[in-house]
What does this fold into?
Amino acid sequence: QQQVKQSPQSLIVQKGGISIINCAYENTAFDYFPWYQQFPGKGPALLIAIRPDVSEKKEGRFTISFNKSAKQFSLHIMDSQPGDSATYFCAANRARDDKIIFGKGTRLHILP
Amino acid sequence: DTAVSQTPKYLVTQMGNDKSIKCEQNLGHDTMYWYKQDSKKFLKIMFSYNNKELIINETVPNRFSPKSPDKAHLNLHINSLELGDSAVYFCASSQDRDWNEKLFFGSGTQLSVL
It folds into this structure.
């Protein structure tokens, strides 16, 4: 059972555009929602994360929007740059649970 | 200084062989993990150790045996390698088991079984 569904599988955006990746979760016990960024040949690295007590978190050009009632959250990359080209994973877990559940990833390509 | 380091970076071997991947973290974290990433980039947890104690074993074939000599090291030994074991294996660590809000990943070991 896939508990975190991520879409789209791949995304192509023009430089300067907005990249949007969506995730939906099933387990209402989840209370931590990170996004990881992975460049080719590297391990994933934490990009930004949100807890369900807020509806939005912004760090530079990266914003997470969170909709608790819909059980959905999304990553917005403003002014997308070629250096943002990577695979992005949403994830979810709950405190005191060792297992973080990853989405299947989105391959983002920013056209120069 | 690399926070989570794993060796080797690439591993090419024949079916039926036994191989090991080593992982070390210098972050002082209590919890370490092994993840498998398949060709479609799907990340799946295999094992988790907390202070040398196994806490997660995600229905992994018993050909895979993790070993944690101390909390800074978590090695993965694979017996009788099969074609389907070909993947990228990532070691990761986090501060503790109760609040693993940030995972630190190594750069991965690309295993190719021929």
User: Anything to note?
Assistant: The CA atoms of residues 19 and 77 of chain A lie 5 Å apart.
